[in-house]
């Protein structure tokens, strides 16, 4: 059976190797084993440590070593005033100079307080944001004793310089509203008609009016002839049936008689309807 021998009941077998009674050896995994009464007894290797910061075990070893050095720490350690024993660490605090931090986040081991800022007779803590007296368009911040200020960004304007305006309490210029038109310009010669003016632009049958927003609205008149021989008066849109008659290119007044151009024996008269 495992752990026994046919030659001697007190001999042990371990991993195919015979062990004499009372023998001790180390198995993989840092197990300390011995042969006792024909049985193999194992327990974890016990490592006595005589220093505060031993070195890791060497390759193939089970116990840390106190000889040859020590483990590093997070902050640099100044040279001690007395010799150190192997494997022991002695720590002292670094010497810190008084004063403010050189930067908001110091990288060394000394603690400090960021410097305050003095601006226009007032004191501000590090990181404080404020606006100078009477200037809401400027924002300042205190950084390690120095004041950094910036101005409010303003949009780009598409109006000329003379139309830009800075109102009370405003940080940026704005464009003025264009003045309301006082009339209508109808040609390149600068002719202007007042709002509400009605005129004819060369055609007596077309009438235009100047609107309140400076635009021009025009409308054409449709003529309806009520007689077969109306009179066309220069400058007037529609022919006139009440003033007389037009016959064969000649104008005759109301109730006027005249011979017919087709038959000289016929007499014609201009009648008002």
UniProtKB/TrEMBL annotation:
Pfam families, A to Z: VWC, VWC2L_2nd
> Which SMART domains does the UniProt entry name for this protein?
VWC (SM00214), VWC_out (SM00215)
Q: Which UniProt keywords apply?
A: Glycoprotein, Secreted, Signal
Q: Which domain of life is it from?
A: Eukaryota
Membrane-traversing stretches: none
GO cellular component terms attached to this protein's record: cytoplasm; extracellular region
Q: Does the keyword Secreted apply?
A: yes
Its annotated compartments are:
Secreted
Stretches assigned to the VWFC domain: 10-67, 115-176, 182-242
Q: Please give a single GO biological process term from the UniProt record.
A: cellular response to virus
Put simply, this protein is called VWCE protein
From which organism does this entry originate?
A: Urocolius indicus (Red-faced mousebird)
Q: Which gene encodes it?
A: Vwce_0
């Amino acid at each position: 059976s495992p752990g026994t021998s046919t030659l001697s009941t007190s001999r042990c077998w371990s991993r195919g190797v015979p062990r004499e009674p009372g023998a001790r050896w180390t198995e993989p995994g840092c197990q300390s084993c011995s042969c006792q009464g024909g049985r193999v007894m194992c327990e974890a290797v016990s490592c006595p440590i005589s220093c505060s910061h031993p070195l890791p075990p060497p390759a193939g070893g089970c116990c840390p070593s106190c000889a040859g050095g020590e483990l590093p720490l997070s902050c640099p350690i100044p040279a001690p005033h007395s010799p150190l024993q192997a494997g022991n660490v002695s720590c002292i605090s670094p010497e810190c100079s008084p004063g403010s931090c050189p930067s908001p986040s110091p990288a060394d081991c000394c603690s400090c307080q960021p410097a305050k800022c003095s601006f226009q007779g007032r004191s501000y803590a590090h990181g404080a944001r404020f606006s100078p007296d009477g200037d809401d368009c400027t924002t300042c911040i205190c950084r390690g004793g120095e004041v950094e200020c910036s101005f409010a960004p303003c949009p780009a304007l598409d109006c000329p310089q003379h139309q830009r305006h800075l109102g009370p309490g405003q940080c940026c210029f704005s464009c003025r509203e264009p003045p309301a038109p006082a009339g209508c310009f109808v040609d390149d010669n600068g002719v202007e008609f007042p709002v509400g003016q009605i005129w004819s632009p060369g055609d007596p049958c077309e009438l235009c009016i100047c609107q309140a927003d400076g635009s021009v609205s025009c409308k054409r008149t449709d003529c309806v002839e009520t007689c077969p021989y109306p009179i066309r008066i220069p400058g007037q849109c529609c022919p006139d049936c009440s003033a007389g008659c037009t016959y064969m290119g000649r104008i005759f007044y109301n109730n006027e008689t005249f011979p017919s151009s087709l038959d000289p024996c016929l007499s014609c008269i201009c009648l008002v309807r």
